């Protein structure tokens, strides 16, 4: 979501009577790729761009092709196939070894339903959304890049002439797996087409309970990741920078006012046993995606004995001691280990070294 917000910010700053733009979007990936489906790059006719679709090996070519799409005012699909050992192929020198499809779409600033305007509607959403997009169609159909934005609780959609029940089944699969997927289907209007259903998560919401200096490190890495930050602590102990980074700062007695959803992570790091003991049951019943408790195991075991009515061993969302084992020592390193574990928990991953994983880094859609 941070990349989307950056694209929106640049887009809104432009004078669209003088500067035209196109959006380059990764719509399909096979085998290895630095970026996944949903990565975006906003290209200006002047040659400036923001965002990215790879680790740097494709952006230059995508920039030139996007400018051509702007000039022709016509979307196009470009395939970067680096799976063969061809030294002349873009990306091979950097070891991409994958097949990546990128949709280049000129953006009509006068169209209230262009992709960027649709993304504006969900940039501050607290729930996920799905973006339906035509990524392949007969050349004379004129629907390449056609879009529809739907909420994840939408049962049916009317899109590109695809039979509604069939489309509802695709949407249910994407909703369940929480990942983008492409489908080849028959349109009653346009014939055989391919659609992408992109699952767009809301920004991760991080609640930090604490007011000691290590909270600054935790908020710093969360801000870099683009997370939405909430802080619980004594205001007089918190830095100005923390107030600038946080969407909201509350006192300990106001903690129950915070809304929690399946994209919320809570880290209890007050270094005060009684405060953490009071907050633990509060957030236990709110059931965030991640509830981290700083401190050694023996501290948690003592809390568990004092909270016998809570099933603290069977939550699936309580992580204590919070953070991955990376040998972290400084507040910044500890914050890094906690942030990494939050990402792993949110994506339902084990948080182990990639060298121990069999197969490809990313699952195939």
Nutshell version of this structure?
It contains 9 helices and 15 strands.
Give keywords:
365 residues, alpha/beta, Rossmann fold, 3 domains, six-stranded parallel β-sheet, 9 helices
Characterization of the model:
This protein folds into three domains: 1-124, no CATH class; 127-202, no CATH class; 205-346, Rossmann fold (3-Layer(aba) Sandwich), CATH 3.40.50.720. The two termini are 20 Å apart. The strands form three sheets. A six-stranded parallel sheet has the order 12-11-10-13-14-15, sandwiched between helices. A five-stranded antiparallel sheet has the order 3-2-1-5-4. 34% of the residues are buried. Strand 14 (290-293), helix 8 and strand 15 (318-319) form a beta-alpha-beta unit. The protein contains nine helices and 15 strands. The longest helix has 16 residues, at 331-346. It has 365 residues and is α/β, with parallel strands linked by helices. The chain has helices at residues 2-13, 59-72, 115-120, 164-177, 214-225, 240-245, 273-286, 297-306, 331-346, and strands at 21-31, 40-44, 49-51, 76-81, 98-107, 129-136, 147-151, 181-187, 191-200, 205-209, 228-232, 248-250, 264-268, 290-293, 318-319. Mean pLDDT is 89; it is low at 91-95.
């Amino acid at each position: 979501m941070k990349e989307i917000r950056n694209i929106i910010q640049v887009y809104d700053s432009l004078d669209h009577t003088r500067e035209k733009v196109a959006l380059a979007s990764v719509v399909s990936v096979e085998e290895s790729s630095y970026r996944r489906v949903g990565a975006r790059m906003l290209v200006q006719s002047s040659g400036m761009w923001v965002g990215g679709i790879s680790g740097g090996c494709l952006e230059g070519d995508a920039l030139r092709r996007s400018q051509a799409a702007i000039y022709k005012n016509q979307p196009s699909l470009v395939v970067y196939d680096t799976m063969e050992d061809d030294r002349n192929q873009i990306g091979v020198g950097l070891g991409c070894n994958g097949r990546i499809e990128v949709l280049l779409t000129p953006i009509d600033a006068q169209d209230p339903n262009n992709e960027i305007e649709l993304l504006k509607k969900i940039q501050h959403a607290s729930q996920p959304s799905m973006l339906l997009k035509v990524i392949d169609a007969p050349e004379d159909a004129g629907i390449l890049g056609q879009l529809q934005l739907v909420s994840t609780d939408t049962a049916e959609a009317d899109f590109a002439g695809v039979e509604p029940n069939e489309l509802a089944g695709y949407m249910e699969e994407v909703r369940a797996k929480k990942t983008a997927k492409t489908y080849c289907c028959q349109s009653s209007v346009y014939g055989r087409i391919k659609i992408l259903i992109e699952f767009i998560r809301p920004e991760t919401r991080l609640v930090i309970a604490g007011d000691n200096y290590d909270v600054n490190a935790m908020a710093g890495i969360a801000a870099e990741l683009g997370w939405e930050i909430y802080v619980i602590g004594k205001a007089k102990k918190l830095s100005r920078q923390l107030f600038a980074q946080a969407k909201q700062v509350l006192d300990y007695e106001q903690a129950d006012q915070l809304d929690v959803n399946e994209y919320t992570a809570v880290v209890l790091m007050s270094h005060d046993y009684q405060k953490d003991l009071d907050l633990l049951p509060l957030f236990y019943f709110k059931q965030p995606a991640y509830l981290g408790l700083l401190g050694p195991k023996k501290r948690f075991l003592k809390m568990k004995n004092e909270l016998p009515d809570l099933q603290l061993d069977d939550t699936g969302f309580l992580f204590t001691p919070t953070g991955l084992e990376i040998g972290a020592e400084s507040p910044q390193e500890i914050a890094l280990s906690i942030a990494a574990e939050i990402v792993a928990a949110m994506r339902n991953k084990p948080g182990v070294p990639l060298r121990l994983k069999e197969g490809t880094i990313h699952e195939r859609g």
